[in-house]
Amino acid sequence: MSTTIHTVTLLPGAESFGADEHTSILRAAEAAGLDLPSSCRNGTCRTCICRLRAGQVAYLVEWPGLSFDEKREGYILPCVAVPRSDLEVEAPLARRVRPAEP
Ligand code: FES
After folding, report:
1. For burial by CB atoms within 10 Å, which of 36, 70, 78, 94 has the most?
2. 14 C-alpha to center of ligand 1: Å?
3. How far apart are the CA of 27 and the centre of ligand 1, in A?
4. Ligand 1 lined by 46 (C-beta under 6 Å)
5. For the segment 34-65, what is each residue's pLDDT rounded down to a tens digit?
């Protein structure tokens, strides 16, 4: 199993954290002390929807709740998306709930 770590940067605050290719962006953010909007955490409610500015993701579920047009426009569901490269994600509602680890 690969343990490649990618850097995820949340915009506009520019908080960043490392995320492996097997952990959802939402869980990786939480592990880094950042809170993002979420509810179902399984790709159906769309509470977590945000837009990818740069990078590539893959999904842990076969049918994440996004339309073809939304995917094409760069929207992602961080609760079921995993990074495949460094990412820049628009997440204006992200907030730090724990200090960053040194
Ligand atoms: S938290 Fe429900 S789709 Fe992500």
Report:
1. 78
2. 22
3. 12
4. yes
5. 999 999 999 999 999 999 999 999 999 999 99
Q: Which CATH fold topology does 5-96 show?
A: Ubiquitin-like (UB roll) (3.10.20)
The domain segmentation of the chain, as residue ranges, is: 5-96
- Distance (Å) from CA 77 to ligand 1 centroid: 6
Element spanning 90, H or E: strand 87-90
Q: Is the CB of 22 under 6 A from ligand 1?
A: no
61 in ligand 1 pocket by Cβ < 6 Å? no
Confidence of residue 2 (pLDDT cuts 50, 70, 90): low
Going by C-beta distance under 8 Å and a sequence separation of 6 or more, which residues neighbour residue 9? 15, 16, 86, 87, 88, 89
Strands 15-20 and 75-76, bridge-based pairing: unpaired
